[in-house]
């Protein structure tokens, strides 16, 4: 019996259970991710995604399985980005973060815990993905993103997720994504507040990101961040990434959403379209 026949026999009601996924990987000597892709190619949904079916089709789930997302930063925003992208089924994740977990991270960073203090954030992120969705391939890079390593880090990316806390590095990331024509989903947080925007190929959101803010780090250095702000903003970022990867819905192109959780207000600001210099 080949893999195709195994999948057909093990599927029930258009779903392929995790136990069968494990058995297939062992029997045919392939990865969980390879099993998942083969299942989706047969028009069958891995059972773990069955609650996606009314929102994300099998064909779109296959697109997610074959997608590569790069998450720059694995802290407050980045931890939630990793968690949600893995549960969504984005098949290849690259997690970039030079830092280790410290005690002040415990109030908001979903991947942190007292037992993990001192551990590299990127390494912990990869281990977490292995626990919740072993079909996802994760590359953990304990390094700081910079122009020097950017092209290697972003190679093959279908979308880049901004989980940074440095304004200079955020602007550099946006510039490099423009140069490489890779969609970027920006998110930033501070206290009760946050913002989300998408930069698609040909666009430039840099002039609109931080206005006249002159400090090297964002407003979170003054306001701090409670547990709920990164969860909300990262979830909006993942929704944006999902739409971009699937080519569905309407993205935040030339728009920025501002979130005020203190007064539970969401406002939209139209951004002045600014074409990237690349290719002009």
From TrEMBL:
THIF-type NAD/FAD binding fold domain location: 49-271
Source taxon at top rank: Bacteria
Matching Pfam families: ThiF (PF00899)
Transmembrane annotation, as ranges: none
Stored InterPro entries: ThiF/MoeB/HesA, ThiF_NAD_FAD-bd, Ubiquitin-activating_enz
CDD domains reported in the protein's UniProt record: ThiF_MoeB_HesA_family (cd00757)
Protein name per UniProt: HesA/MoeB/ThiF family protein
Organism: Geobacter benzoatilyticus
């Amino acid at each position: 019996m080949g893999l195709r026949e195994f999948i057909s026999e093990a599927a029930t009601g258009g779903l392929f259970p995790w136990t069968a996924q494990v058995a297939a990987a062992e029997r045919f000597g392939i990865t969980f991710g390879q099993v998942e892709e083969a299942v989706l190619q047969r028009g069958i949904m891995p059972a773990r995604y069955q609650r996606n079916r009314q929102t994300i089709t099998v064909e779109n789930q296959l697109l997610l399985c074959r997608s590569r997302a790069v998450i720059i930063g694995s802290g407050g925003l980045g931890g939630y980005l990793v968690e949600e992208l893995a549960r969504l089924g984005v098949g290849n994740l690259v997690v970039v973060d030079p830092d280790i977990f410290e005690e002040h991270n415990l109030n908001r960073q979903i991947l942190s815990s007292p037992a993990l203090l001192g551990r590299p954030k990127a390494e912990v992120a990869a281990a977490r993905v292995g626990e919740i969705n072993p079909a996802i391939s994760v590359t953990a890079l304990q390094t700081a993103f910079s122009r020097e390593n950017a092209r290697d880090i972003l190679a093959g990316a279908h979308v880049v997720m901004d989980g940074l806390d440095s304004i200079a590095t955020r602007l550099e990331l946006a510039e490099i994504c423009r140069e490489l024509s890779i969609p970027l989903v920006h998110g930033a947080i501070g206290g009760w507040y946050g913002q989300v925007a998408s930069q698609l190929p040909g666009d430039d959101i840099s002039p609109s990101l931080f206005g006249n803010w002159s400090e090297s780090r964002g407003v979170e250095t003054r306001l701090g961040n409670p547990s709920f702000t990164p969860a909300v903003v990262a979830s909006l970022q993942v929704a944006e990434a999902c739409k971009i990867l699937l080519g569905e819905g309407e993205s935040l192109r030339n728009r920025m959403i501002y979130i005020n959780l203190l007064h539970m207000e969401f406002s939209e600001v139209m951004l002045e379209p600014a074409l990237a210099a690349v290719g002009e």
